[in-house]
Amino acid sequence: LQVVDEEGKDVTPHPLFHPDPNAAVPRQGKTLPSSARFGAAGAGPYGSSRTSISNASTAEATQDETAEPGSQQDTTVTSSDVQVKPVEMKEELTEEDLDRSVDLYLTEMETIWMLDVPSVVASVESEDAGRILERNKIYTDICKTRPGNDRFVEKMMQTINGAAKNKEVQCDQIVMEDKGVTVTSWDLYDSFNVLEKNPTSKAGGTRATTRKSSKLHTTKEHHQTTSVCSDTDSTTSPTMVLESSVHEEEDCHSGAILTSDNFQQDLFFMERILMENIFQPKLAVYRQFPVLIDPDVTSDTGTAAATKEAEQREQGKEKKDKEEQKEAFVNPSILSDGKKSLEEVVSPSLERLWSYICDLTNGHSVSSMAWSKVNPDLLAVGYGAFDFKEQKKGLACCWSLKNPMWPERIFQCEHSVTALDFSTARPNLLAVGMYNGSVAIYDVRSRNDAALLDSGESTNKHTGPVWQLRWVEEDRGKAERLMCISADGRITTWFIQKRLDCADLMKIKRTKREEKKLPGMKERKREALISQQAAGMCFDFHPKDTNVYLAGTEEGHIHKCSCSSTEQFLETYRGHKGPVYKVAWNPFSTDMFLSCSADWSIILWHQDSQTPFLTLNSTTAVVHDITWSPKSVFVFAAANESRGEIWDLGVSVLNPVISCLASPGEKFTSVLFATNTDCLLVGDSKGEVSVFKLQNLAVPSADKV
């Protein structure tokens, strides 16, 4: 191969090694023979080359491949063999040479695997599929017969531990210093006494420290009278240092104990036990169980005598109370009959058991009460203020019968709580309505007092106080929704999603007064209404058909509404002269309902009649709340400002059968019957919820309506 530049000069690079022509050259693979002629011709600015191989050279190469390897000779080359030999110019290829056909033979070389990862999965259609399945079956049979087989023995092996390595680290030089202090013999004595005594509790540690300090002062005073120490550092020597360190250790240890979960749980159980011991007789009366007397207490003669005297005094007091109650609450119909005397009459009465009150609730007015739908011992009480000028922060507390002295859960609210109710489908949810119109939902299972959901972000929330709210079941208990009535004249239903949002169910419109026009009387000009909507005060859903409900308004009207109609009222009942504070359907006779108002009256209605069925007036005081008894169709309770009343319509429609006067300066604001016992709960304006036992109150049969 020759390389010629544009001017025709040979610029082919000469090799540095020239083999000896007499020596045999070893052939490797299919190399081209030396007899092959190469021709090159320059073309173009960069030059080009053309190569041709003759048939003779190809045949010679084929013969060389069949040569025996033993015929190769020594190919040792010395430095003298390297010669620079001039290359002769070759003739250019002719057209016949270019047109001559050349035969090239391509053979397959051995496959070289760069990466071979054997597969663990074989196709079912492969040739080795049967063999692989047979091996897998043999292995499965061996694994099944392995337990208990003598051919398999479990052995342990110890692996070789790696050689240990030593590492050295350079650090700063440790500086040693010698320090000394001058102490006296009494300092050493007091220091050893402090180290020997280890207090076991915070109280014990405080008493021990007091004794040590007093002993220290006494010892120092005694020694100071005999000798004078001139060194001022001796007064602050190891005694004071050790005492301060001991105090710090005691405080840290006591704080860790008081904040531990186990200690808090133990305190909780101890509190439960103490409450059971204190309130056991009253709780037994509440649950209608016999009161147990401790035999250890009555075994002592003196204690037994004291117990007997106390029982006699109690019996005398009860007898006196019964006589007073007979004079005050005797049935007039019995007195008219001369056959029965006062001694034969057993009138119903109230026995006060305990009160739910604590320092947090003292001074807050009880606005509403609600029992848990699942746990009959759990009571939710809302605290707030009804007067606009005396608004304060509200509370929602959950009280339990197991601890009447402190609530189980306390939820702090920014505004006064006006209404609350427990959910039926999710009993852990407590809905709370407030005076500013907001609604919040709390989780009573959590000890965190933050609201689970709040209506603060809702653009359609109420602008007036939420006077009442209630969880209402739909579709025969399959669904549940939260309903509210507010002073802004709207009845809303709330949707519980990622946030609380509501939609209007009814906008209560003001109704015109029906004035009787006398003959010759001129028509008066009607005053323009400030608002077209009447303020809603209370509502109640029908016990059998939750699609129908009653709504009491501030103008004294009661509207019968339907959830299907959001524009018109089904009926309007006019009988009150003041705001209607509460309406309640009778749970047994579902056509009758009660209402109370600020006009001092309680009215019994029939839903088919727009005129009052019965009007009850016992005092000249505002009636804040009413509730039906869960056990009798005739019995209901009412909370006046001056007293709490229990009415039995089967006995008298003129006077209540039981009355309980409020304390001076207090007003009754809320009333609620217990669900599973014959007890009544009454809330007042001082934040106290009193629990009363109903005695000698006749309960008619369930079928008497």
UniProtKB/TrEMBL annotation:
Q: Which GO terms describe its molecular function?
A: dynein heavy chain binding; dynein light chain binding
A family per Pfam: WD40
Q: Where are the WD repeats?
A: 573-615
Please give an example of a GO cellular component term from this record.
axonemal dynein complex
Known SUPFAM superfamilies for this protein?
WD40 repeat-like
The principal localisation class reads cytoplasm
**Alphabetized UniProt keyword annotations:** Cell projection, Cilium, Cytoplasm, Cytoskeleton, Flagellum, Repeat, WD repeat
| Signal peptide residue numbers | none
Location(s) in or outside the cell? Cytoplasm, Cytoskeleton, Flagellum axoneme; Dynein axonemal particle
Low complexity: bias regions: 225-236
- Polar residues composition bias: which ranges? 48-61, 69-82
From its record, what is one biological process in GO terms?
cilium movement
Chain intervals for the UniProt region annotation (Disordered): 1-96, 199-236, 298-328
Q: Which domain of life is it from?
A: Eukaryota
Give the compositionally biased regions (Basic and acidic residues): 308-327
Q: Mind telling me what this protein is named? A: Dynein axonemal intermediate chain 4
Q: Which gene encodes it?
A: Wdr78
